[in-house]
Amino acid sequence: MFSILGAAIRRRPFTSPVHTPLLLQRLIIILNNQRTVRKMSAIAKRLEGKTVVITGASSGIGRSCAFEFARTAPNHSLRLILTARRIDTLKEVAAKIKEEVGAGVQVLPVKLDVSDPEAVRNFVPGLPEEWRDIHVLVNNAGLVKGVAKAPEILESDMNVMFSTNVTGLINMTQAILPIFKSRGSQGGSGDIIMIGSIAGREAYPGGSIYCATKAAVRAFTDALRRELIATRIRVMEVDPGQVETEFSVVRFYGDKAKADAVYAGCDPLTPDDIAEVVVFVAGRRENVVVADTLIYPNHQAAATVMHRKGT
Ligand SMILES: NC(=O)c1ccc[n+]([C@@H]2O[C@H](COP(=O)([O-])OP(=O)(O)OC[C@H]3O[C@@H](n4cnc5c(N)ncnc54)[C@H](OP(=O)(O)O)[C@@H]3O)[C@@H](O)[C@H]2O)c1
User: Fold this and answer.
1) Annotation says 214 is catalytic
2) Helix 208-227 × helix 167-181 angle, to 10°
3) What is the pLDDT of residue 311?
4) Where is the Ketoreductase domain positioned along the sequence (predicted)?
5) CATH of 49-295, one of 3.90.78.10, 3.20.20.140, 3.40.50.150, 3.40.50.720
6) Mutate which of 53, 55, 59, 218 to test ligand 1's pocket (most atoms within 8 Å of Cβ)?
7) C-alpha of residue 31 to centroid of ligand 1, in Å
8) Is 40 left (phi over 0), alpha (psi -120 to 50) or beta?
9) Sequence ranges of the domains in the chain
């Protein structure tokens, strides 16, 4: 009987069962409710009411993460705090998210240079009160500069990579952790998701400093997970292989032709591919920690092992 009713409702929901007997009316209400419940995915329910901070949300993987969180839980009072140095770009991202998913997701663009320790210290106190109850931190902001080998590496490139990828990420973590640690009765809860890299697992020539920064992220992440073992705080790392973003344009100081050559003959990942994994790990049941993930495109098998079409 339930399946017959279900089929009828799927064809045409009963919205005004005025002439229907009482018992049947009750069954119709239950089945219509079941239809609504079924529409809400488990991941959307788990993200309900959460506040997510994404660093480096003006481009590439961070930008895609913002859209993916919003698309996954569009009607669930999600709050997204999008940070980067390019505030105008963040405002455009915020407007596009609103246009796409509507008012169920609130977006707050915040100008923040993670390499500036004072700016990071002022980040949480500078947020409006109702945005401070942060549940998820996606530590994504990062960059690579140049392909120089020692002893030709520019000191300025070295400094910007370490202050963004390493101390920036650590300072952000330290800024948010007290919020997590004060939540609940079990030592705290919340998610810290680090965007590492295959470069943190395998060093390659011409990438020594970038690889060193991502290896540092990996060591910090592993130590932090151990330090927080008695809490409900999840520390997770997502390591992409080759992804086509502004990453290579930044590496070659704005030279688009050199950046395009990196991907010639390859079929790289898209930033959306990584964002799907980030939202997946944040959306697992609270007792599930997807601690460590390595993601390659199909043509890649190591940091420098790629198949290029035509070679
Ligand atoms: N693309 C790849 O192949 C690849 C592979 C493995 C790992 N990753 C990692 O993925 C992360 C995202 O990179 P992506 O590929 O998406 O590159 P992207 O398109 O260049 O995006 C980098 C983001 O980081 C932000 N950023 C850079 N320096 C910052 C700073 N000092 N303060 C705040 N934000 C800063 C940029 O925003 P503003 O310029 O507006 O500040 C931008 O939003 C990085 O950690 C990168 O190391 C990338």
Assistant:
1) yes
2) 20
3) 72
4) 50-246
5) 3.40.50.720
6) 59
7) 47
8) beta
9) 2-38, 49-295
